[in-house]
Specification:
Elements (H helix, E strand, L loop, with lengths): L1 H31 L6 H17 L4 H22 L9 H23 L15 E4 L2 E4 H23 L1 H11 L1 H6 L4 H27 L5 H16 L4 H21 L4 H15 L10
Antiparallel strand pairs: 1-2
Helix pairs in contact: 1-5, 1-6, 1-8, 1-9, 1-10, 2-3, 2-4, 2-8, 2-9, 3-8, 5-6, 9-10, 9-11, 10-11
Keywords: Amino-acid transport, Cell membrane, Membrane, Transmembrane, Transmembrane helix, Transport
InterPro entries: ABC_transp_permease, BCAA_transport_permease
Membrane topology: Multi-pass membrane protein
Length: 286
């Protein structure tokens, strides 16, 4: 029984990383109607930012603070100089352009750090395990769950209790409404895109001590992010949270029941959700 409880808790931790990875993708599409295939590359940048900070003698805590800021700033520059020019084009152009951007980032990572993955150690304060009787669990994973839950609350407050959140939610319902309110839509679009990329970068920083970093991790992350968004519902914060937890728990538990098919089962779960609720668990009919 302890094994399945352990895998359930592991699934919650993984699911919270998936939530942070997917929530930015969901919000960006909800507001901008922009298909961003470079989102996994921002996760990759966050993971390597964590590695770079620690290699330069910094701490994991500095990486956790500044890594997402660096990723968000790079995304803001890319949106301002490049992506803003293709918003009005068909989705096919969005996909091709952002795929090219993702591959460029991946190749730059390979050129600088090489094609071989490296390990990232958790901070010294979070090394070791916590024991509750016969149940043993790593300190870093406990921190990951607690910190991600706090971040989820902060993001919810940002979306539900601030003027920026009101504009983002209004834009998700009707982008034309934002324009009619005489709001600088391009400024809001750029800020939203940067925030979405920063959350993906934050997910990369948090994931680095769990799985290490390697140049191709962005491709896997992108696939999982789209699964979470489809399962939860496009443009929905609660959908991204529910979808991330569901996908993380399914993957973690199935790694015990059927290790060879653990990754496959998340796509089976997505197919089942689409059959029962085509707009996702928390999505609205478009």
């Amino acid at each position: 029984m302890n094994l399945y409880l352990l895998q359930l808790i592991n699934g919650i931790g993984i699911g919270m990383i998936y939530f942070l990875l997917a929530v930015g993708l969901s919000i960006v599409f909800g507001l901008l109607r922009f298909v961003n295939f470079a989102h996994g590359a921002f996760y990759l940048m966050g993971a390597y930012a964590c590695y770079a900070f620690m290699q330069l003698g910094g701490s994991f805590w500095l990486a956790l603070l500044f890594g997402p800021v660096v990723v968000g700033f790079c995304a803001w520059v890319a949106e301002r100089l490049l992506l803003r020019r293709i918003y009005d084009l068909p989705h096919e152009f969005h996909i091709l352009f952002t795929l090219g951007l993702a591959w460029a980032i991946q190749e730059l990572v390979i050129l600088y750090w090489g094609p071989v993955g490296v390990n990232v150690s958790p901070p010294a304060e979070l090394n070791g395990v916590v024991m509750w009787g016969a149940f043993i669990y790593p300190k870093y994973r406990i921190f990951l769950i607690a910190f991600s839950a706090l971040l989820a609350l902060v993001i919810w407050l940002l979306l539900e209790r601030t003027r920026l959140g009101s504009i983002i939610r209004a834009g998700s319902e009707s982008p034309e409404m934002v324009t009619l309110l005489r709001i600088n839509v391009y400024k809001i679009f750029g800020l939203t895109f940067a925030l979405g990329a920063a959350t993906a970068g934050l997910a990369g920083v948090l994931a680095a001590p769990l799985r290490g970093v390697e140049p191709f991790m962005g491709i896997e992350a992108l696939a999982v992010a789209f699964v979470v968004v489809v399962v939860g519902g496009m443009g929905s914060f609660s959908g991204a949270l529910l979808g991330g937890l569901l996908v993380g728990i399914v993957q973690s538990v199935m790694s015990t029941l059927w290790p060879q098919g653990a990754s496959l089962m998340i796509y089976v779960a997505m197919a089942l959700v689409l059959l029962l609720r085509p707009d996702g668990l928390m999505g609205r009919s478009q």
